[in-house]
C-alpha cells in the first residue's frame, strides 16, 4: 500500500471492504453446488456450526487482534520498533493459547450444545450430527485466532492490502477444499450427504492455515525491515508484564463488546427451535426456517455487511493515530467519513435485496420455497444496513476511548432483546428473531451517535441532508426495477442461468442509476472524496 493509501481512512476502508466483498461473493457462489452435495435437510447442521464459528470468529478478530492493531499503530507512530516486535511476539503467543483453550472448551461442550439447540433425545441422529459438526469445528477455533494475530499486526501497520488479500486467499482455499472433498466423498465414494457438511466445516481449518502461510511469506520483507530499524532504536522497551497489561487494557473492552453482540446468535442457536414450537411449528419446519434465517438469506444479507468489517479494520489504526496526536479535528472528520461512507455504500446493496427479493432468492436457490425465501430475505435485508452502522459506531466508541459507555449501551440493548426473544418468536414466528436483531441494532446506533456527539461535539446536520439525497437515489433504483418489469424482463420466468444474467442487468442498471443521481448531488465527492478531475487526467493523459 502506497503512502497516500496509508494516510487515507476512506481508501483503507474501501480496500479492506473490497477484500471482504470478494470473499462474500465467493462464499455465495459456492452455496449452490454445496447445497446440491449436502442436500437441504443437512443445511441446518451447517448453519448451526457456522453460527458457532461466527460467534467465536467475531471474538477472535474483535478482541485481542484489534488491540494488537491499536498498539502496533501507536508504537509505530512513536518509532518504538523494538516494542512493536515485542507486541507481535506476545500477541501471537496469547492468541495461540486462547485458541487452544476455546478448542478444548468446544470439544467438551459439543454434546450439550447439540442437545439444547436441537431439543431432541441425546441419542437421536439429529443430536449426534450436530455434535459431530461442533467437534470438527473445534479445530478451526484454534487456527482462526492464530491467523487473527497476523492480521492484527498488519492492520496496525496500515498494510490493509495484505490484510484484504489474505481474506480472499483464505476463502478461495476454503471453497476449493470443501467442494472438492464433498464431491469425492458424496459423488465418487457414495457417502451420506452429511459428509459434505463435515468436509465443509473441516475446510475452515485448512483455509486458515493457508492464510497463515501467506503472512509468514510476507514477514520475510515486512518483519525484517522493522527488525533492522529496531537494531538502531534507543527506545526503552516495556516489560512483558507491562505490555501484556496494556494489550489486555485495549482487548478486554473489545472482547466484551463482541461477546455481548454475539448474544443474539447464541440465543438463536439455543432457543429458536423451542420458540418456533411454541408458535405452532414442527421441528422440521423450525429447521427449515432456521436454515433460511441463519444460512441461506444470511449469506445474501452478508453482501452489504462486507462494508462494516472493512471500515472497522481501517478505523482502529487511523483513529488511534489521530487520538495519540490529539488531532481532534481530524477525529471528527474520521467519525463522519466512516459513518457516511458505510451508509452510502450499504444502502443500495440492502435495498437491492429488499426490492427484488423473489428474483434474488430464485437465482441463488431455485424455485423450491421461493415465496417463503423471498419473504425471509426481504425482512432480513434490513439487517444489512443496521448491522453495518451499529458495527461502525461500536468500533468508533471503542477507538475513541468511550469503551465503558459503549459496553453499557451494548449490555442494555442486547439484554432487552434477549429477554423478549422467545416471546417475540413465539408470537411473530421466525420474523420475531429478525425484529429482535433490528431493535437491538437501531437502539445501539442511536445511543452511540448521541454519546459521540456529546463527547466530541460532532455535528450530524449535513449528514441528514446527505442521507435524504441517498434516498432519492434509492427511488431511482426502484424506478429502474419498475421499467425493467414493464418491458417484460421477468426473472422468475427464465431458467436460472438466463435469470442470473438478467439479475446482473438489474443490478448494473439500478446501481448505475443510484450512482448517477447521487453524483448529481456530489455525494461521491463529498463522502468518498473522489476527485473526478484527477481520475479523468489519469485516463486521458
Q: Which features characterize this protein?
A:
2 domains; 0% strand; globular; disordered N terminus
Protein model, in words:
Helix 12 (283-301) crosses helix 16 and helix 15 (357-365) packs antiparallel against helix 21. This protein starts with a helix and ends with a helix. The protein has 2 domains: 3-459, no CATH class; 468-541, no CATH class. With 541 residues, the chain is mainly alpha-helical. Helix content is 86%, strand content 0%. It has 23 helices and no strands. The chain has helices at 3-6, 9-29, 31-38, 43-62, 64-77, 81-118, 125-156, 160-188, 194-231, 240-261, 263-279, 283-301, 307-325, 328-355, 357-365, 370-380, 382-399, 403-428, 431-456, 461-486, 496-520, 523-527, 532-539. The relative contact order is 0.11.
Q: Tell me the overall shape.
A: globular
Q: From the alpha-carbon coordinates, what is the Rg to the nearest angstrom?
A: 23 Å
Largest sheet composition? none
State the oligomer. Answer: single chain
Content of β-strand: under 5%
Spatial gap, N to C terminus: 24 Å
Query: What's the number of structural domains?
Result: 2
Helical element count?
23
User: How much helicity do the residues have?
Assistant: over 70%
Order of helices and strands: HHHHHHHHHHHHHHHHHHHHHHH
The chain-level structural class is: mainly alpha
Amino acid at each position: 500500500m502506497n503512502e497516500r493509501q496509508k494516510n487515507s481512512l476512506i481508501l483503507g476502508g474501501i480496500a479492506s471492504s473490497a477484500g471482504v466483498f470478494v470473499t462474500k461473493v465467493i462464499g455465495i457462489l459456492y452455496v449452490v453446488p454445496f447445497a446440491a452435495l449436502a442436500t437441504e435437510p443437512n443445511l441446518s447442521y451447517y448453519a448451526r456450526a457456522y453460527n458457532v464459528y461466527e460467534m467465536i470468529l467475531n471474538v477472535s478478530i474483535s478482541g485481542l487482534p484489534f488491540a494488537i492493531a491499536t498498539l502496533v499503530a501507536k508504537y509505530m507512530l512513536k518509532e518504538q520498533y523494538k516494542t512493536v516486535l515485542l507486541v507481535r511476539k506476545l500477541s501471537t503467543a496469547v492468541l495461540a493459547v486462547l485458541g487452544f483453550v476455546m478448542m478444548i472448551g468446544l470439544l467438551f461442550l459439543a454434546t450439550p450444545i447439540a442437545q439444547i439447540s436441537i431439543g431432541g433425545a441425546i441419542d437421536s441422529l439429529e443430536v449426534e450430527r450436530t455434535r459431530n459438526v461442533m467437534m470438527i469445528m473445534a479445530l478451526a477455533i484454534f487456527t482462526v485466532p492464530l491467523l487473527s494475530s497476523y492480521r492484527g499486526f498488519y492492520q496496525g501497520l496500515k498494510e490493509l492490502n495484505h490484510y484484504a488479500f489474505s481474506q480472499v486467499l483464505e476463502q478461495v482455499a476454503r471453497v476449493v477444499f470443501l467442494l472438492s472433498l464433498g464431491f469425492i466423498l458424496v459423488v465418487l465414494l457414495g457417502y451420506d450427504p452429511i459428509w459434505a457438511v463435515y468436509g465443509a466445516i473441516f475446510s475452515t481449518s485448512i483455509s486458515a492455515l493457508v492464510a497463515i502461510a501467506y503472512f509468514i511469506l510476507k514477514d520475510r520483507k515486512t518483519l525484517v525491515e522493522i527488525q533492522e530499524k529496531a537494531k538502531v532504536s534507543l527506545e526503552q522497551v516495556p516489560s512483558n508484564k507491562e505490555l501484556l497489561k496494556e494489550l489486555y487494557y485495549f482487548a478486554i473492552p473489545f472482547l466484551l463488546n463482541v461477546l455481548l453482540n454475539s448474544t443474539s446468535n447464541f440465543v438463536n442457536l439455543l432457543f429458536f427451535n423451542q420458540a418456533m414450537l411454541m408458535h405452532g411449528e414442527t421441528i422440521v419446519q423450525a429447521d427449515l426456517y432456521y436454515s433460511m434465517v441463519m444460512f441461506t438469506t444470511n449469506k445474501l444479507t452478508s453482501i452489504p455487511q462486507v462494508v462494516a468489517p472493512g471500515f472497522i479494520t481501517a478505523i482502529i489504526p487511523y483513529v488511534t493515530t489521530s487520538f495519540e496526536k490529539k488531532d481532534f479535528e481530524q477525529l471528527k472528520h474520521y467519525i463522519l467519513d466512516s459513518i457516511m461512507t458505510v451508509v452510502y455504500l450499504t444502502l443500495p446493496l440492502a435495498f437491492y435485496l429488499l426490492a427484488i427479493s423473489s428474483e434474488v432468492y430464485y437465482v441463488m436457490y431455485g424455485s423450491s420455497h421461493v415465496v417463503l425465501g423471498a419473504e425471509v430475505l426481504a425482512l432480513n435485508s434490513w439487517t444489512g444496513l443496521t448491522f453495518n452502522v451499529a458495527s461502525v459506531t461500536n468500533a468508533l466508541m471503542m477507538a475513541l476511548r468511550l469503551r465503558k459507555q459503549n459496553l453499557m449501551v451494548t449490555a442494555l440493548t442486547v439484554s432487552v432483546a434477549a429477554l423478549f426473544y422467545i416471546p417475540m418468536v413465539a408470537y411473530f414466528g421466525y420474523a420475531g428473531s429478525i425484529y429482535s436483531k433490528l431493535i437491538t441494532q437501531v437502539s445501539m446506533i442511536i445511543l452511540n451517535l448521541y454519546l459521540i456527539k456529546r463527547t466530541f461535539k460532532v455535528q450530524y446536520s449535513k449528514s441528514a441532508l446527505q442521507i435524504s439525497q441517498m434516498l432519492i437515489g434509492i427511488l431511482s433504483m426502484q424506478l429502474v426495477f419498475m421499467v425493467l418489469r414493464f418491458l417484460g424482463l421477468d426473472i422468475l420466468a427464465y431458467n436460472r442461468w438466463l435469470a442470473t444474467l438478467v439479475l446482473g442487468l438489474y443490478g448494473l442498471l439500478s446501481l448505475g442509476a443510484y450512482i448517477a443521481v447521487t453524483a448529481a448531488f456530489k455525494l461521491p465527492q463529498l463522502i468518498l472524496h473522489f476527485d473526478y478531475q484527477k481520475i479523468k487526467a489519469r485516463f486521458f493523459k
